[in-house]
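Researcher: Next entry in the queue.
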Amino acid sequence: METATRRVLIPGGSGAVGEGAVRAYLAAGADVVVPTRTEKRADEFRRLLGDAATDRLHLFAHDYSTFDGAESLAATMQDRLGGIDDVVAPIGGWWAGKQLWEIGETDWNTAFAGLATAHMAIARAVMPRLSGHGSYAIVVGESAVYPVPGSGLVSMEQAAVLMMQRVLAAEAGDSRRVHAFVLGPVRTRLMPGEPTWVSADQIGAVAVALSNTPGEASREVLLRTSVEAEHILAALA
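Model: Structure for this entry, 237 residues:
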């Protein structure tokens, strides 16, 4: 299935990391759905994308962080575009400053329960609707596999989401491809970083390349450096 005919959902796409995936799929001619918190945020993101924001970009305010919200989002996308082929889910944020025995209930609900629920809600709503032509890419950081003192809730949440990807891939078998992108530090418009860091644009390019490679089984993709990203793109090419 050509990229130009794909229908792609990118929850978290208006963030600095997700922006790379949005740009990559739009450049490939896909229809891209990006839910945002508010209409104001949607307008800001469209202006930020500039000429990259083609008429195939579908921005609208929608809360997908609950089971009902994610179900409504997936159903609306299916109704308006006829289905869902690809998902890239860079849902998340950073939390730091406390050791685990210092956290409160608000910390727990924000940095662990809330983010894990958003990932689970999207997976639950989208997996039964995936066409099988593309792939589902769950984006996590290296904190999924390495403990980060002072940011333990993020490490725990990312580890849980990575295991969710592994279970989804095992349950989907050959019918659907569910990938995990494990990221190191990322160069974005907000964080120029170091030249050795993987860039948001490279993450987007890998997502497009994997979705266009039907022979690739579900896999964990290490994107910790710019060099790793280039090696993967060369192999997929």
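Model: Residues 105-126 form the longest helix (22 residues).
Researcher: Noted, moving on.
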